[in-house]
Amino acid sequence: MKKVFQTKFGIDGNCTQACIASFLEIDINRLPEKFTPNLWFKELNESLIKFDSYAVMLDAAYGTPKDAYVMAGGKSLRGFGHYVIMKNDKLIHDPFPNGTGLFGKIEDYLLIVPLMPFPVRTERLFYEMSLELEEISRRIKKDHPKYSQKLMSIAVNMDCLTDVSVLKSLSEFELDKDMRSLVDEFIKNWKKVDEKRFVTLEGK
Hints:
Layout: H1 15-24, H2 40-48, E1 53-59, E2 70-75, E3 81-87, E4 90-93, E5 108-114, H3 118-143, H4 148-156, H5 164-171, H6 177-202
Antiparallel strand pairs: 1-5, 2-3, 2-5, 3-4
Helix pairs in contact: 3-6
């Protein structure tokens, strides 16, 4: 964790952004400057998607999360809502310069957690692309039944789609303009997904 301090103060302070930037070890300016009061949690999670993370809020009445860095929310000595970073009830970082933590009871906790591990994300993409190929195959077989056998071969060899001959057979189908465009886009996207998948599996 890299400690990041807030740059705005008072009712429009950005202590929340500073805490999240600390967790993610990013520049605070990469997060929204402000959130809409009644929509702030939704907007927060939307902003975290690009960092492959999301926020989980826990009511402090149910206890303190153990052995984890968490954002604790409550009131500051200045009377404003405030977030700090804690672990096992110990203050780790107050984003307010020279801050001493919260004043009074903790009201809630925020945990910043990853959406899912990178290998799982790439396997999910692989699965989604497989479903897309099934739909493309169904449409091609309907309008161009002569390619049924080749499509069956491609489906059997899904793990080998980066093989030049397999991709070539798919790219050489004589299709109408719209279907040709769809297939070409699929091939382009598949190469990107399979490249990520290969690197991920090799790096395990």
